[in-house]
Amino acid sequence: MRLLLIAPLFSAVSYGAQATNSSISICPPATKPANASDAIPATFPGYAFEESSFVYYAGNKTNPNRISQNLIRAVSQKTKTRPVIRVGGTSLDRATYDPNLSDPIYNPDPNSGIPTHLKIGPSFFDLFANFPEAKYVIDIPMYHDNLSNSILFAASANKRIGASNIYAWEIGNEPDNYGNTGADWNEKQFSEKWGNWSKAISKALNASLDSQTYQAVALSSQTGVTGTPGGDADSWKMYVLSLMVFQGDTYQKKIQRGDF
Ligand SMILES: *[C@@H]1O[C@H](CO)[C@@H](O)[C@H](O)[C@H]1NC(C)=O
Ligand SMILES: *[C@@H]1O[C@H](CO)[C@@H](O)[C@H](O)[C@H]1NC(C)=O
Ligand SMILES: *[C@@H]1O[C@H](CO)[C@@H](O)[C@H](O)[C@H]1NC(C)=O
Ligand SMILES: *[C@@H]1O[C@H](CO)[C@@H](O)[C@H](O)[C@H]1NC(C)=O
Ligand SMILES: *[C@@H]1O[C@H](CO)[C@@H](O)[C@H](O)[C@H]1NC(C)=O
Ligand SMILES: *[C@@H]1O[C@H](CO)[C@@H](O)[C@H](O)[C@H]1NC(C)=O
Ligand SMILES: *[C@@H]1O[C@H](CO)[C@@H](O)[C@H](O)[C@H]1NC(C)=O
């Protein structure tokens, strides 16, 4: 899990190991300097839970995780907005949706690091209600290349989390690493597949094709990636991203489906 930029919210006025109560003066200019940046949106900080850990950070309905709940509530109150939390990552990307699973998740191999065959059941999505202040970026599995299963996943998430609590969808995770594992997806194939998937998912949600927001793919920052077919790691990233049209001015890059 990464919870970014939470610490500064709580420590903005107190620096140093030994806090003293000596006063300081701050003199901002009376007028906005010409070189000032645009105002930073209150939703700027990004938050994320790894799919396989979310159950522990959320808790369940009867036993919610009060610490995470307090954190998210505090962020919401300080920023006067709904924090956007992305739930996903590699454990999500390699997971399978199982409509018959009664537990939220099942990890067949709990001792092997990042789960690669996690199963996710419908009740997983009920845990999202434990953070009523949040909106979500819902990451959808792609690695195993089963669009039918991913559509079941997205439809269940949409129904149980509620469309109004979903800020955006995301498809896959770090696809620039897929090539390393033998998947036959070069830059062009991935981009085309991404377009096909986003269209098919919106359609399955009975949503108009342009009503859904898709977050740009999250790419691996590993510099040692060598398996990306059709080019080196940097060219792969540039190619894929250049095919996606960014919209909006917040940190979440909004991509309209079908822009390539
Ligand atoms: C700073 O002020 C607060 C509130 O008056 C007081 O509780 C605290 O002990 C003071 N801290 C120090 C280091 O003087
Ligand atoms: C912005 O302008 C102020 C006043 O001219 C200057 O002191 C400051 O260094 C500038 N900041 C940047 C980031 O250029
Ligand atoms: C909720 O979580 C608690 C603590 O982990 C567990 O004992 C309980 O069985 C869970 N309840 C449900 C309905 O899963
Ligand atoms: C879920 O359970 C039903 C009824 O037992 C069964 O027909 C179906 O094949 C199961 N589906 C999966 C994905 O296991
Ligand atoms: C793909 O997903 C569908 C729907 O869950 C399932 O019926 C099918 O068996 C899966 N295909 C493979 C190859 O796993
Ligand atoms: C995308 O969809 C089109 C139309 O169904 C199909 O011809 C094409 O093969 C798909 N591309 C990929 C990479 O799956
Ligand atoms: C979309 O509409 C069809 C036809 O009315 C329905 O069968 C299906 O369940 C709906 N899907 C969702 C995700 O609401």
Automatic annotation (TrEMBL):
The keyword Signal applies. Keywords: Signal. It comes from the Eukaryota. Residues 1-19 form the signal peptide. This is DNA, SC103. It comes from Aspergillus oryzae (strain ATCC 42149 / RIB 40) (Yellow koji mold).
